[in-house]
Amino acid sequence: MTLKETLNKLEELSDEKTLKYNLKNNVGDNQYGVKLGDLRKVAKKIKTNHNLAIELWATKNYDAQMLSMLIIEPETLTTDKLDAMVRSIKYIRVADWINSYVVKLHPENESLRIKWMQDKNPMAARAGWNLTTQRIVRNPEMIDIPYLLERIENEMPTAPSETQWTMNFSLAEIGIHHPKYRERAISIGEKLGVYRDYPVSKGCTSPFAPIWIKEIVSRKEIQ
């Protein structure tokens, strides 16, 4: 499919409810309002197409960028190109998709993680903390957990909302996966109070780190 054909297809798949939902969640007018399931169907038909993915990204259209993440070849991107893409992101869901489908699969993600962890750009920092959370869970030998706890305690209260969310994930995963630091993580969460009053649906776990840590740990103990 060409870029024009792909954009026409996205326009055909426009869904009024999705459009309204996206607008309510701070996605601007440069979108078609395509259901995520329909985006995945289009991606399945296209398969991998790196050049088309780059063209879709360049449109700055929300749906086009989301589709781009599903058909791109992460290993083909230079670190400079990926860095520029991350910094240009305007929408949280696009940020989360690029982190899940591209950043974590990129062969140089560790060097980017180290760079982004010191970055003032909210989306770059979000990506850095997202990768750090993965290290906390899977490769803790690669990181300094006491240093991370100190940074979280000092920086999370005033961090941009884009970054704060993934910093909180790191705090929670430290408490969940590292018993040695569990009480410290809970204490920091209680002290900072970030997401203490976050609204959650019935049956869902609060993102407030102390609640989140205790809930997941109790589930593991029951198992």
Give a structural overview.
α6 (79-88) packs across α9. The chain is 66% helix and 0% strand. The protein folds into 2 domains: 1-107; 112-223. The protein is globular and about 55 Å long. The protein is built from 13 helices and no strands. It is mostly helical. The mean pLDDT is 96.
How does the SSE layout of this entry go?
Blueprint: H1 3-12, H2 16-24, H3 36-46, H4 50-58, H5 62-71, H6 79-88, H7 92-101, H8 109-116, H9 122-138, H10 145-155, H11 161-177, H12 182-192, H13 209-222
Helix pairs in contact: 3-5, 4-5, 5-7, 6-9, 7-9, 8-9, 9-11, 10-11, 11-12, 11-13, 12-13
Query: Low-confidence segments, ≥5 residues, pLDDT <50?
Result: none
- Average pLDDT figure: 96
- Rg estimate, integer Å: 19 Å
Shape: globular
Number of strands: 0
Q: Would you list the SSEs in sequence order as H and E? A: HHHHHHHHHHHHH
Give the biggest beta sheet: none
What key attributes describe this structure?
223 residues, mainly alpha, 2 domains, 66% helix, globular
Quick structural gist:
The protein is built from 13 helices and no strands. By secondary structure, the chain is an all-alpha fold.
